[in-house]
């Protein structure tokens, strides 16, 4: 009889643990916005696809000049592309405050934001 109670309790605990919502792991936090690695990858992929297609004139992606002097882990020329807090991939309109930075080899340089920066500068996420 005791064994069946233990088994029932174990089943309940396992079911609860599996059904419990998993907290998203933040790869980057810009201000109060949490970005998962998959969100960063999706934004980078969209930006790089446009870069490869030559769509870098008046909109995004465009060259990021690194006026702030970030020490990125990859070499440039760098391009910036918006990453949106709602999880959608940027396709025009207001770019929001946050950007993924990548180079011409499609290597992620970092994620930066206007949030908390002076004027039109960026700070690291």
UniProtKB/TrEMBL annotation:
It comes from Penicillium cataractarum. It catalyses: [RNA] containing guanosine + H2O = an [RNA fragment]-3'-guanosine-3'-phosphate + a 5'-hydroxy-ribonucleotide-3'-[RNA fragment]. Belongs to the ribonuclease N1/T1 family. The keyword Signal applies. Its EC number is 4.6.1.24. Residues 1-19 form the signal peptide. Gene3D superfamilies: Microbial ribonucleases. One of its GO terms (molecular function) is ribonuclease T1 activity. Keywords: Disulfide bond, Endonuclease, Hydrolase, Lyase, Nuclease, Signal. InterPro entries: N1-like, Ribonuclease/ribotoxin, RNase_U2. This is ribonuclease T1. It comes from the Eukaryota.
